[in-house]
Specification:
The complex is a heterodimer. Chain A is an alpha+beta fold. In chain A, 37% of the residues lie in helices and 14% in strands. In chain A, strand 18 and strand 19 form a beta hairpin. The chains are: A alpha+beta, B alpha+beta.
């Protein structure tokens, strides 16, 4: 690979000037579309989570014609809805010393210095606008008795900057964005296409000019043309089969764009969330998160004696190991997620795990209930406790929760520049689907912030600049590229249906998940990653020879939907493992066993790996090309992350 | 609450199968062995589907997504009850420990003319989106907001508003109602917004227009049987319908539009 030439192709378009002036500078310099001309432009938004719904609504409010697509039956159901704990902002309402700079600093540090400084600063800068916007929409954030907004604390921060709606913050923020979107549907500025899956991107003269999607009810392959395409399609955690993602979450839209020329950055950066309900049996279909906010009041522990099989209430205080408080006295139970997850794995691997599988640790609320009273705990976490009891049949008010880490969020995603534009002009990528803001580890309550920042306050400016400055020619779906791309999509579906083998889609997906978890999970090493690459290749081959998808392509066929998503995961998984293999360091959620300190902390290598790894597709069966975007840190000093 | 079963269950499932909206449907009976009581209801259906695929029969279609009770995508009538027998529980959060060995379970899609069947247990709930489009929002554009603390909102108003805002839009209220009324759903949005100062400017227009859309979609009228509240997985109270009725009366009498 020619790295020198490659680097020239990655222009991150970071504006000049001091960090706190960059976004202002950028906005001042961007070209505008005059109000009367906006109606001449069509924009496609794929995905209607926080990023997609907020972008679609905001662009439509400006006057653009928006078409919005989602695979669910309603845009209100996107998986942002499941985010529980909260959303960060640098309001400093609690007067505890917060600022835009501190939020920026915490996010860069929390991301283990693998995020782009300029993007993160902008994120912190617009965070306060998000809160105001959501309040104005009627999002019922928690309030103090005096009527002002309340805050709670989240991991990786020493200030209280998290705004929340009980344990349903994602739901309320999404319903806010959804209501803005519905308003634009009612005035005719947004055409909504639910139950549609984007199956390919249409590129005309080097620009993203449309999509091919499958109508999931009728099976019809549809084509849609536009002047720009916004991908807001979330993360790829379901490559692990078991994750906290919704069952439908997938990498297909992003992967199809990658195959059309969009670089994929840092695919190996995956967040394993420390507080999830442990796996129960082989039939398990998904994992459920218990919000990080619980660590505000819950204490994590295991018995000091690995052979201690007494029920938790029978184990006296002095025979419990509150290992987070022991190892990280400064942050205690509120260390960032990657640190908490690895610490749980370390205790369980050493034989201290609890429960039947011994792959669990306790999250105990006894002291909080004694000190604050049950009703206070109930008002903070009632719905989470309810959900825990539903799933486990145990009452967390009486016995400690049992938790274990699970795949939750993916920091990697399509490479984007400062404008959130991918390496395909006119293809913008927002929210979890891009790679830019969280580096190698995302802090809690930052995903909601990023999705809404991108959709409400970044894309409306940068997309306009693209439209005003690109001199785009008129293109309709009559253009041969649309027909060509649609035929490819149809052929692919027919091929899947015609295999008629022996194994179900779910069965193969479970096997892929196991390969990923065993080799690309919380700890990785070169041998395991090479094993994963081989096994994924073999499994991909088996899929195309032995999958069984019944029914037809011209009907509501959920197994066929799943098959298409799995086929892409089987390609993507290999790139994931290759990315993890080339990154010979440990950082954030990426822990290479070969690279750790004497006390088992992550050992970063800034000299060789302070870059974003952006992969370029070269064709089926060809090695992808690695491009490196060097990350420079002018504001935050590169230090070893310590929460001790 | 019955005590949790400890051994695996054998079940008889009677499931509504309907290939598409215009085709006639029928109940089909399936035997399922060795069901763990720790499985969720949907995991039980996953197992059934795996077995059907092995036999060459197309799997049962049902909507689901988050499988943690918040997205509102799942929902089916289980032995005549929307989302099954557990209080405040979505289908995905119902667990097989709630059933006994040897049970027969009848599974049907939501029953309402306004929710046409798409296939098997999956229905079209787009009517709900159209009710929200009719006024379930605050008309504020991105960038127009004032500071979040500029309006002080008493904690009890915010809490009560949040109680209503918690609706997940699953449609169980409609499926449970003998009139197939969507009053609980509609009232939840009206009640959420009317209790906040942000919702005040449009309060009259909103309630009139949402009710009008509700009726246009073919949902029935409310006759206060409260079955909706009993079926609601998000604990939405019928008191919101009372608030909606008051709002509607006031708007009818005083609206200048």
């Amino acid at each position: 690979m020619s790295t020198a030439a490659a680097q020239q192709t990655l222009d991150s378009r970071i504006p000049d000037g001091p960090i706190d002036q960059k976004w202002t500078q950028c906005k001042n310099e961007m070209k505008l579309v005059a109000p009367n001309n906006k109606r001449k432009f069509d924009i496609i938004v794929v995905g209607t989570g926080l990023a997609g719904a907020s972008a679609a609504a905001s662009l439509a409010e400006l006057g653009y014609n928006v078409k919005a697509f989602c695979y669910q039956d309603s845009p209100r159901r996107a998986h942002s809805i499941a985010a529980q704990g909260g959303i960060n902002a640098a309001k400093n309402y609690p007067n505890d010393g917060d600022s835009v700079y501190r939020l920026f600093y915490d996010t860069v540090k929390g991301g283990d210095f693998r995020a782009r400084e300029a993007n993160v600063y902008r994120l912190a800068e617009v965070s306060n606008n998000i809160i105001d916007q959501c309040v104005a929409q009627g999002v019922p954030f928690a309030r103090e008795y005096g009527g002002t907004l309340a805050n709670r604390t989240f991991g990786g921060a020493q200030v209280s900057r998290t705004f929340y709606c009980r344990g349903q913050t994602g739901q309320q923020l999404l319903l806010g964005a959804y209501s803005a979107l519905m308003r634009q549907v009612s005035v005719g500025k947004v055409q909504m296409y639910p139950r549609r899956e984007m199956v390919d991107l249409v590129v005309v003269d080097g620009n993203a000019r449309g999509i091919v999607c499958r109508n999931l009810v009728t099976g019809e392959i549809e084509t849609h043309a536009a002047h720009a395409v916004l991908l807001c399609t979330g993360g790829y955690g379901n490559v692990f089969y078991l994750s906290t993602n919704a069952k439908g979450c997938n990498v297909t839209a992003a992967w199809r764009c990658h195959r059309r020329g969009a670089y994929f950055a840092n695919p190996c950066f995956t967040q394993i969330h420390p507080t999830c309900i442990p796996v129960k049996g082989s039939y398990q279909s998904k994992l459920t998160l218990m919000s990080e906010s619980l660590r505000n009041d819950g204490r994590v522990w295991v018995p000091k004696d690995p052979g201690d099989t007494r029920s938790p209430s029978q184990i006296p205080e002095d025979q419990r190991d509150y290992y987070l408080e022991r190892r990280y006295p400064a942050f205690g139970n509120m260390v960032p997620r990657d640190v908490a997850s690895r610490a749980a794995k370390e205790r369980c691997d050493a034989g201290y795990g609890v429960g039947e599988s011994h792959l669990a640790v306790y999250l105990d609320f006894q002291r909080a209930i004694q000190e604050q009273g049950r009703h206070v705990i109930e008002s903070k976490y009632g719905n989470l406790f309810h959900m825990y009891k539903k799933i486990t049949d145990e009452n967390p008010y009486e016995v400690p929760m049992r938790i274990y880490p699970a795949v939750h969020y993916t920091m990697g995603g399509l490479w984007v520049d400062y404008h959130l534009e991918s390496t395909i002009p006119g293809l913008f990528v927002l929210g979890e689907a891009n790679f830019s803001d969280h580096g190698a580890n995302r802090l809690g309550a930052s995903a909601l912030m990023q999705g809404l920042a991108d959709g409400y306050f970044v894309a409306p400016y940068t997309v306009g600049h693209h439209l005003a400055s690109s001199g785009l020619k008129p293109v309709t779906t009559a253009h041969p590229k649309f027909k060509e791309t649609a035929v490819e999509a149809r052929n692919r579906i027919e091929r899947m249906l015609s295999v008629n083998g022996k194994r179900s889609v779910d069965d193969i997906h479970r096997q892929l998940g196991q390969i990923m978890w065993d080799n690309c999970g919380m700890a990785r090493n070169a041998a395991g990653l090479n094993t994963a690459i081989n096994e994924i290749r073999n499994l991909r081959e088996e899929f195309w020879q032995n999958v069984r998808v019944l029914g037809s392509g011209q009907s509501f066929n959920q197994a066929l939907e799943h098959a298409g998503r799995l086929a892409d995961f089987l390609e993507f998984g290999e790139l994931f493992a290759k990315d993890a293999l080339q990154r010979e360091e440990s950082c954030g959620g990426h822990f290479r066993e070969e690279h750790q300190t004497a006390d088992n902390e992550a050992l970063r290598d800034d000299e060789h790996f302070a870059y974003a790894a952006a992969w370029q597709f070269q064709g089926d069966g060809q090695e992808e090309t690695l491009h490196k975007e060097q990350l420079t840190f002018n504001e935050v000093e590169l230090t070893t992350r310590s929460y001790k | 609450m019955i005590s949790p079963a400890h051994h695996n269950l054998s079940l008889t499932l009677k499931i509504w199968r309907q290939p598409h909206a215009d085709a006639p449907g029928e109940f089909r009976t399936y035997q399922l062995q060795d069901v763990s009581p720790h499985m969720s209801f949907l995991e039980m259906l996953d197992i059934l589907n795996e077995q059907l695929i092995e036999k060459g029969e197309e799997p049962v279609a049902f909507d689901h997504d988050c499988r943690e009770g918040i997205c509102g995508m799942c929902g089916m009538m289980i032995n005549g009850q929307a989302h099954g027998p557990d209080h405040e529980t979505t289908t995905c959060q119902l667990h097989m420990r709630r059933f006994e060995d040897g049970d027969t379970i009848v599974i049907e899609p939501w029953r309402s003319r306004a929710f046409p069947v798409i296939r098997d247990l999956a229905v079209d709930r787009s009517a709900f989106d159209r009710i929200i489009q009719a006024g379930g929002y605050v008309s504020v554009k991105t960038g127009q907001a004032i500071d979040g603390n500029a309006n002080l909102i008493p904690q009890q108003d915010q809490e009560s508003s949040m109680d209503a805002a918690a609706c997940i839009g699953c449609g169980a209220c409609v499926a449970a109602c003998k009139n197939a009324s969507a009053m609980l759903f509609t009232s939840a949005k009206v009640s959420h917004l009317v209790q906040l100062p942000q919702g005040a400017p449009e309060r009259k227009k909103r309630v009139l227009s949402m009710i009008s859309q509700h009726d246009e979609e073919g949902f029935g009228a409310c006759t206060n049987t409260y079955e909706c509240e009993a079926a609601c997985p998000a604990a939405i109270s019928v008191s919101h319908i009372a608030r909606l009725n008051r709002e509607y009366m006031k708007a009818m009498l005083t609206s200048k539009e």
